[in-house]
Amino acid sequence: MFNLIKKDLIIQKWDLLVSVAIIVFYAIFARQLSPFFIFLVASIFLPLNAYINEEKTKINILWNSLPYTRKEIVAAKYVGAVLFMILSMGAAGAILYIFNYHYTLRDIAIAAGMFLIFAAFTFPLFYILKPGYIGIAIMIGFLVFSFALSFIVPFVTENFTAIIHFLAGFSTLTLYLSGAVIAIGMYLLSWSVSHFVYQRKVF
Questions:
Q1: Cα dihedral angle (123, 12, 36, 26), rounded to 10 degrees?
Q2: Residue 3 burial (10 A CB sphere; 0-12, 13-18, 19+)
């Protein structure tokens, strides 16, 4: 499994430089953006790009001809994604610090949670859908999400005071721990779904 993760890192060494360039661009020209958004973009870039590149090359046929179990192949993707997230966020934090772009640990925590939730919904698609349909599915998902927001935002706005009062009853630590448990739980569930699908997939 370690060799599969190492392979992704070697293949994406140039993508890592692109990721660094994007962060530098945001740090210089987009200082009005929330730091958590920059951390989120940085964390998503490498893992998502790894899946997209493999979809284009149909490399899963090769992986299944090598001495790796399908469980190891899926595990390498999910464990590797977390490692890439940590690497990307570390690079982003260093760059933002160099450019005096203020951020807090809360920004990193929120971005990490958002990444796990995004990955939980996105990664299984690469095993469920046929090659070539992933981009369409993600685009449709984005449109559906945007449409749902048109209903969610007015609801939150109308009930903002009640929601704030409800959340105020919990400590900050409780809220963060609850968010972490939900995000990690969704990621592990996604891992199980991907493993279940990939075990039964025919190449």
A1: -140
A2: exposed
CA angle 84, 79, 50 (to 5 degrees): 55
Q: What is the mean pLDDT of residues 85-114?
A: 90
Each residue's pLDDT tens digit, 31-62: 788 888 889 888 888 887 777 766 655 566 66
Q: Which two tokens stand for residue 27?
A: 């740090």
In angstroms, the CA 176 to CA 123 distance is 24
CB count within 10 Å of CB 102 equals 9
Which residue in this structure is represented by tokens 């464990």? 79
Contact 159, 88 (CB under 8 A): no
Which residues are CB-neighbours of 34 under 8 A, at least 6 positions away? 107
CB-CB neighbours of 191 under 10 Å: 20
- Neighbouring C-beta atoms of residue 200, cutoff 10 Å: 9
The pLDDT, as a whole number, for residue 159 is 64
Radius of gyration of the chain (CA): 19
